[in-house]
Amino acid sequence: MSELPKVFDHTTVDARWYSYWESIGAFTALPESGKPAFSMVLPPPNVTGSLHIGHALNHTLPDIIARWKRMLGYDVLWLPGTDHAGIATQNVVEKQLAAEGKTRHDLGREAFEARVWEWVRQSHGTITAQMRQLGDSVDWSRERFTLDPGLTRAVRREFVSLYRDGLIYRDRYIVNWCPRCRTALSDLEVQHRDTAGKLYYVRYPGVGGGPGVVVATTRPETMLGDTAVAVNPDDDRYRHMAGDRVRLPVIGRELPIVTDSFVDPAFGTGAVKVTPAHDPNDFAMGRRHSLPSVSVIDEDGLMTAEAGPYAGQDRFKARRGLVQQLEAEGLLEKVADHQHAIGHCERCGTVVEPLVSTQWFVKIGPLAAEAIRVVEEGKVTFLPDNWTKTYFEWMTNIHDWCISRQLWWGHRIPAWYCDGCGTTVVSEDDPDRCACGGVLRQDTDVLDTWFSSGLWPFSTLGWPDRTAELARYYPTTLMLTAFDIIFFWVARMIMLGVKFAGGVPFHTVYITGLVRDERGQKMSKSKGNVVDPLAVMGEIGADALRFTLAAMASPGMDIPLSEGRMTGYRQFINKFWNASRFLLMNIGDLPSRPDVPPAHDLGLAHRWILSGVSRLSTEVSDALTQYRFDLAADRLYHFFWHEFADWYIELVKPELQQTGPVRETAVAVLIEVHDRLVRLLHPFIPFVTEEVWQRLPRRAGDGPTVTLAPFPAKVAGWLDAQAERDMEYLQQIVTTIRTVRSERGVAPSRRIAAVVDEADAAMRAMLERNAGYIRQLAGLNRLEFRSEVAPGPDTVKRVLEHAHVFVPLAGVVDHQAEIEKIQKEVAAVAKESSAIEQKLASQGFVERAPARVVDEARARLAQLGERRAKLEGTLADMRG
RNA sequence: GGGCGGUUAGCUCAGUUGGUAGAGCACCGGCUUUACACGCCGGCUGUCACAGGUUCGAAUCCUGUACCGCCCACCA
């Protein structure tokens, strides 16, 4: 034992215990165990990604729950896995290729896919190793990947089933298009950023030579695709022009003026150009008025042949040229600054181009309606609750989901088109040939990544087969995730779970805040304020990081991760380590763990700490039941450090020096309380607790790891309010004497005397019995208890709730300082007294406040009066 | 345009059925007390953003204001 280092060294400990847990199958779910089941699925991180601080939070909190439930005796399945992350992964590999001077087209589809698989196999180990480093107690034997054969089968079943139900359709429609990624995006993959732009006022001359109309636009380059001008039917300025025709500048096309109530008369000129091919509103308007659609921007963001002189130009270059031309032709009436939100590709930041193309969509209305219903019925609860409203808001205004992506990496769409008869075949299995005998070609697009991850809670359990796992572990209990993927993922899991798995995928959705830097700023690479959990774990260990995240995870709040807080909790880990070291160094070699004697045979300190640790068990369990990781961590921190280490260990030190029954009792209680604290702390700080637990003396029936040891429950017989009150009194006396010593500059090594005038005989007896504790902790060589004391000169007299403490200190008493101190206290007491008197004097309080509160106020006033009398008595003595 | 969150000690934050405020860090003073200086002991620190309202009583409930932040959004 003596070789234990003074500072906990996580670097030599953490990895060893994780391997051990894995080797004994500590995290493996046991469906046959007969225990009640508890399940969660881990939000699958990007298979080629690296653990970031958000993951650290989203893995630590459920891990605490998983470990806690396991210790409570549940058969816990926490299922891990990774996501193929279609567009993100493809982009990474394309970048690698670009560095070699190649594009994916140089390789061709098959070779490219092989290349991505190679990258996936190579980097899969990175993220999973990082999860082990953090301590995720997941069941690796059931790890899944969204492109596994089983999950691929699930995706096909999903697609075909939705298609047959008429919930998937293919249509030519306006979609968000990223010209860089060359793929369609869903609404969610578009990020709107406020941008300072311009509003251009352009005149479209009348066909007959009239003045025509002036339209306002932020995107002049799209005017080349205009097929109408629209005005509000109630706009007196324009109403008479409905049906007139104007001439589109540059191109010369004649455009009709249509009326549509969508047009806001108050914006711009009240007349709007209509470009059905490049604006979602205009697309809808185009359909309402049967307008033609002219695409002027292609899939690379270049102007098409329809753009006349601008054909082949980049869309932004065309804008500049066009503005110049309009100005030269005298058609540009005005340019105004204009602030507006522009859509950008979530993955690459390119400005998204709305354009018309043929895509697959999920008809979302019926699915959303069900997903709303199950939440309304309380089958899924959001924590904190305000997210429920956000969820409803979004689900109510949801649009059809574009699920096809023009990528190569992902689940290929199970639709085939016949060259012969033009039929579309949608099938789970690859069809050989069309019924007409024609050759079938599979759709070249892949599915949105979220189309497969939306099945995660049940595809990972074997769906579409009706497996025993699915029956046992679905639905899961808790889904914990950051708010940014509520819509991407949580909502879709609910929709698809209800549709396919017979019910909601989880009962509680815990939405975490964002981990921010210490100044509350969002972490970003460009700001350089990113906290790397791997670096942090390397420096202070996974336990310290975990405990910090847990302690700071207040529901609904972002987490400003500060160096200071992390340091503080690293020190807590070290405190835990050293208190444990102390214990191991003092209990000696025990053949087995000693039993704690019945509480009524124990001295005050032991009864007090047993009562405390029993209460702590309840508090931690209650907090975890409500997912209040912060409260649980706070209580554990405070109890371990400021009650167990600061007081209890100090109290029992002398007893440990003895031999015989006194020492044996102290050892037994010390081990018992410490062992309970180790187990209570284990879900939060698994590594250091295992390291310590393995060195503790065993009791018959203890398993191979603390991970599978029972979580401490409260022991009703240990709860002892009297012991807690007595100890508080004792602590007050000790603290008072210490304060006097500190104020008067008494050297810590100097033993002094003190007297307490406790009038109550029973109390005095209690103090007498425990005088040794006070002498030791306050550095006294003499301590007396009397019912009355006549203080001599050079004695500091301090007032407690029920008694005085006298500390004779010849030569060092500063009478003036003492008088001022007491006067200050008298003033404070007087202030509080008068506040309570005022309260009691008001008619309403006595009449309407609960009797308990009134009694408390009266009792407090009496107490204050007593205290004031004592203080003033002391003051009189000092002056006299 | 819609919705949400925040404003409490120098800093970062707790404060859940309304009874006049807590923690960590920082700071000040003293300590090589044989678990720990990543420590021990003692100490200092608040018109709980502002203005109204409800109530015997409000940091806590209601209304409004200000500032900060976030999410969603097909007014060009």
Verbal overview:
This protein has 880 residues and is of the alpha/beta class. Helix content is 44%, strand content 17%. The protein has 27 helices and 29 strands. Strands 6-5-14-16 form a four-stranded antiparallel β-sheet. α14 (486-500) links the parallel β22 (476-482) and β23. The longest helix is centred in the C-terminal third of the chain and has 29 residues, at 629-657. The relative contact order is 0.09. The mean pLDDT is 88. The protein binds one RNA strand of 76 nucleotides through β8, β12, α7, α10 and α17.
Notable features of this structure?
RNA-binding; four-stranded mixed β-sheet; alpha/beta; four-stranded antiparallel β-sheet; 27 helices
Brief digest:
The chain is built from 27 helices and 29 strands. With 880 residues, it is of the alpha/beta class. The protein has a four-stranded antiparallel sheet with strand order 6-5-14-16.
- Topology, number of strands: 29
Structural class: alpha/beta
Helices, by number, come to 27
| Low-pLDDT residue spans | none
Our measurement of the CA-to-CA distance between the termini, rounded to an integer number of angstroms, reads 59 Å
**In percent, how helical is the residue content?**
40-55%
Q: Using only CA atoms, what is the Rg?
A: 37 Å
Give the biggest sheet.
4 strands, antiparallel
**Morphology call:** elongated
| Strand fraction | 15-25%
Q: Strands of the largest sheet, in order across it?
A: 6-5-14-16
- Average pLDDT level: 88
